[in-house]
Amino acid sequence: MRRFHPWVFSGAIHHIEGQPAEGDVVRVVTSEGAFLAWGHVQIGSIAVRVLTFREDEAIDAAFWRHRLRVAYDVRRSIGLAGSDHTNSYRLVHGEGDDLPGLIIDVYGSTAVVQAHSVGMHVSRFDIADALAEVLDGVIDNIYYKSETTLPYKAGIRDGDGYLRGGAADDIALENGLRFHVDWMGGQKTGFFVDQRDNRALLETYARWRRVLNMFCYTGGFSFYAMRGGAAIVHSVDSSARAIDITRSNVALNFPDDPRHTAFAEDAFKFLDTMPGADDPDGYDLIILDPPAFAKHRDALHNALQGYRRLNAKAFQKIRPGGILFTFSCSQAVNKDQFRTAVFTAAAQSARSVRILHQLHQPADHPINIYHPEGEYLKGLVLYVE
Fold this sequence. Notes:
Blueprint: E1 7-9, E2 25-29, E3 35-41, E4 46-52, H1 61-77, E5 88-93, E6 102-107, E7 110-115, H2 118-122, H3 124-134, E8 141-144, E9 161-164, E10 171-174, E11 177-180, H4 196-205, E12 210-214, H5 220-227, E13 232-237, H6 240-253, E14 260-264, H7 267-273, E15 285-288, H8 300-317, E16 322-328, H9 335-349, E17 353-360, E18 378-384
């Protein structure tokens, strides 16, 4: 706590005075009674998420306006908010913006708010009021999407829906490319804005290559590859709905382009049956961007096995001179563990592999220097002989 880590673990608590309800703002003190922080109390191993270490800072309307204004200033300073060629970005990244338990993504004139704690859920209307004020003239709609992210023990039954407006346009812009955002029925807030920089890097490698985008979701890497001049692009996801949106996104940017084909299939089955390294119809640029294999530390062992198995398939099948973009978005898997899993897969393939880039989350997903757990996205770009 004195090093400003924003979590109080349940095992560190000596006692609780009164009977605070989950989501209430509580005062955290030392056993001697010295003030430490104000934060949202919750059930579970993380007992308090810290909102402020200042005793004189009230958690009121001014608090929410200030924190959101600072977050917006950060996005303007890095050239995202107000950009002519990108209107989709993360405005609030939880602990990285001193608002633990809160995610806000902006897609054009719509902000999608997601609560990962009961405290942020309880505060959602205050947050929406502050958001409408800070981004006045920028956003017209605020959509609340937290049914799948709130702790299941909280017993909250409030559904998702608009807190402001009601968007008619679901098309956003990223680096000059357009895409549909399914914030009502899609994963996360509707799109994975954390891969924006990595998609732009992939575009520079795509020319004349045969590209396979595994776990494509709504096709972000696919339409970047097409703009980069790929010979063919195949998109694979187990979700038929995601594949439909992928096709729509490709058509938005490259109507009637015969280079793209999408498949609603299981990733491992597709990898088993796809052309091999010696086949001229094989792939020489593969993207592996799976969903989180480990959402908590209890699943770490199985997650690392999954990353090894997945990458081993890619090393086995990619054509000589191929480029592999491989990622982990599991917070429970650190970058050294992920790298070791990929190295083990490479060794099993007995192929010569070089690291070209080590990738991470972009600047609009900042990491609180006192909260290293916020570094969740890991990636490698590899050259495979």
